[in-house]
Amino acid sequence: MSLVAESDFLTIVATDVVNEALFDQQFVALNLKEQLPFATFRLVQRRDTKLTPAGEHLARLFRRYCCD
User: What angle do CA 11, 64, 30 make, to 5 degrees?
Assistant: First the structure.
């Protein structure tokens, strides 16, 4: 989320993330009338940092979800 917070990226996250105090109101929720189109997903991670076991598990679930 810090990558998104420090850029002009648009992202789709849960409402709870937008309201998280940790991000000090850096995100703005957009109320969209249209349904979101089919999306392409990406898993972004730092090249020089290993994921924690929980992060590895989440990445594995993400890959599995996207391959179905």
Answer: 15
Are 17 and 28 contacting, i.e. CB atoms less than 8 angstroms apart?
Answer: no
Pairwise CA distance, residues 62 & 55, whole Å: 10
Report whether 28 contacts 9 (CB < 8 A).
no
Per DSSP, the three-state class of 66 is helix
Q: What is the pLDDT of residues 49-63, one digit of tens each?
A: 888 999 899 888 888
Q: What range defines the domain where residue 56 resides? A: 2-66
How many separate domains does the chain show? 1
pTM of the model: 0.43
**How does pLDDT run across 33-43, given as a tens digit for each residue?**
887 777 777 88
